[in-house]
Design goal:
Chain lengths: ~190, ~110
């Protein structure tokens, strides 16, 4: 099998916040009844996480699970664990009406780190990113400038962002400009 | 700017995160219906000055369709509600009646 390369191969930009593409990640779309006990058991078995609350992300030893919509979750693992995790989830969900799909290669992931990381996002997404409204564990699907993206806040106040691989360069350029020195807003 | 609360994910989404999907509560007349019924279903739309019911989609978000009741003249939003319904829920109707007594829209009032 050929070597796996992420969309921008770890490209970085340094402004008042560091923007970096973080390489390949395992990502699995899971759709089904999020309130069912089968779903809770499947997530526990696959990565050891609970079902996240609305617009939240839950981290566990085996990865993370994010709330995407009332019937959709995004399960994140290491890239080389994705297929195993799909198999575990599929088996655990059994005959329940559900969908499990490995979408790792369809996505790109960015990290924004630095004291004012939330400012960089707040400039390009129509989301209330104040510390009270969007703290650690918050997850949001929205848009970055003109394209769809989802992002969440980590414990260390860094942000991670997922978008489609096909728009990775666009998203990187938008974030890079938003993070340029001199572009601090100082409001959040 | 128009801000609608998505009833599925609870986000107060502004217009750019949403997509307008036309009139709410359309009843489809498909194959086998009369020409008049089909024409009405296909082409005839409410175009009120005042209370209006619309379908919206949280396209840059959870992706779900929902309904919104709002005023086309003042842009006041009376409320949003689930798309899995054939008519506006009572609490939305009551809210509109309190603010626009005697309103009517399509078959609703």
């Amino acid at each position: 099998m050929s070597k796996v390369v992420s969309a921008l191969n770890h490209t970085k930009a340094h402004g008042f916040v560091k923007v970096e593409e973080t390489g390949v990640h395992g990502m699995i779309t899971v759709r089904g009844d999020l309130a069912s006990k089968e779903m809770a058991a499947a997530l526990k078995a696959a990565i050891g996480a609970d079902v996240p609350d609305v617009r939240q992300i839950v981290h566990a030893d085996g990865g993370a699970v994010a709330w995407m919509s009332p019937d959709e979750l995004l399960v994140m693992t290491a890239y080389d664990q994705a297929n195993d995790t799909v198999a575990k989830l599929t088996e655990a969900l059994g005959s329940v009406h559900a969908l499990v799909a490995n979408v790792s290669d369809a996505r790109a992931v960015f990290r924004l780190s630095g004291e004012n990381a939330r400012e960089v996002l707040a400039k390009v997404a129509p989301v209330d990113l104040s510390t009270e409204a969007f703290g650690a564990g918050s997850f949001r699907r929205s848009r970055i400038a003109q394209v769809a993206a989802a992002f969440w806040c980590n414990e260390d106040n860094s942000f991670e962002l997922v978008c489609f691989r096909s728009v990775a360069q666009y998203v990187f350029d938008v974030l890079k400009v938003s993070a340029e020195e001199g572009g601090e807003v100082g409001f959040l | 700017m128009l801000i609608l609360e998505c009833p599925y994910c609870g986000v107060h989404a502004e217009e750019t995160e949403l997509h307008a999907e036309g009139e709410a509560h359309l009843k489809r007349f498909g194959p086998g219906s009369s020409d008049d019924d089909f024409e009405t279903y296909m082409f005839m739309r409410e175009n009120p000055k005042g209370v209006h019911f619309e379908r919206w989609r949280h396209s840059n978000g959870c992706g779900k369709f929902f309904h919104a009741a709002r005023c086309t003249m003042t842009l006041e939003v009376f409320g949003t509600y689930s798309a899995q319904t054939l008519e506006p829920p009572k609490d939305i109707k009551d809210k509109i009646s309190a603010k626009r007594p005697g309103w009517s829209w399509g078959n609703f009032s």
